[in-house]
Amino acid sequence: MAGVDWSAEERGAATAAGSGLEQFFAGERIMLCDGAMGTILQGRGIAFDRCCDEVNLAQPETVASIHAEYLRAGAEIIETNTFGANASRLERCGLGDKVREINCAGVRIARQCIREVAVEAYVAGTIGPPGVRLEGQADLDRARAAFAEQIGPLAEGGPGVGADLLLLETIMSLAEAGEAIRAAREVAPGLRRVAMVTVGEDGNCLDGASPEAAAARLTEWGADAVGCNCSGGPATVLRAIERMRGATHLPLAAMPNAGLPQFVDGRAIYAVSSEEMAGYARRFIEAGAGLIGGCCGTTPEHTRAMKSALRDVSFGKSR
What is the pLDDT of residue 9? Predict the structure, then answer.
């Protein structure tokens, strides 16, 4: 797999765009990421069983409006609407031939939105799990190829043109994490990689690995920051972050769900309020995290509350 070829002009844009991110990766800055995309799309009429990534093509203005709300709430990083935009997942929706188109559209919408809102912010190319069980080498090879196929269009043009960093999130197993990181290193070696596992009620990753083991392996394989997202809510993610802290020298990321959903009249209701999430944001920083955000059930209101809570927090003092 060939790496993405960037021109000198694009590399110049990368240097300019990456300065704030480099402070985070150096452990010198707290950064606030956005929150949920899928649950908000569903709240705006996108059917639960519809492919959320395809909305990039059918209703780009809807995706853009959500990005804009997060930016105005204080998000410094917005995630492309591409969580499930890999071949394995898109094929189930009859969209297997749209991988490049959907991922390119995701970056384009996010980048244009930053320009229109006129704030300093960064675009994270979002990569979710392949959605299939990886049981042997052939499965691992297919997963790696699928990750590479998705990462290519996300990274195209380099930072400041394409995505500014890659966000590997809701990792279900260390096996798939390894393939995702390897694909990213080969296809987009110039992009920083944030890799986040999700944990179950027992506090361990869904393949049984401990947070400590996950942090150590992700570090070894070439992640630039590690952490935990999704899971059962902020308390669960906080415990995972606390356990990861001693197992890696890398910056940590914490992006929890707003709790587990309760379904009422066909709607998913999340219990963790914006005020509660703001309180946890401070606790994440105290535990050593430098990248804070939200996952399922979080909204721009959660982002706004976290922004306010973190305004007076010093990263150096928190650590």
Answer: 41
Instruction: Calculate the average pLDDT of the chain.
Output: 91
91 exposure class (CB count in 10 Å sphere: 0-12, 13-18, 19+): middle
> In whole angstroms, what is the distance from residue 158 CA to residue 73 CA?
26
SS3 content of the chain, % helix, strand, coil (to 5): 50, 15, 35
Q: What is the pLDDT of residues 200-239, one digit of tens each?
A: 999 999 999 999 999 999 999 999 999 999 999 999 999 9
Residue 151: burial class (beta carbons within 10 Å; 0-12, 13-18, 19+): buried
| Unique residue bearing structure tokens 């930053």 | 114
Q: With the CA atoms of 47, 53, 57 and 62 taken in that order, what torsion angle do they form, in degrees rounded to the nearest 10?
A: 60
Say if CB 187 and CB 151 are below 8 A apart.
yes
Beta strands in the chain (DSSP E): 31-32, 77-79, 122-127, 165-171, 192-197, 225-230, 252-256, 262-264, 267-269, 289-292
Whole-structure pTM value: 0.91
Topology (CATH level 3) of domain 28-314 = TIM Barrel (3.20.20)
Contacts for 45 with CB less than 8 Å, ≥ 6 apart: none
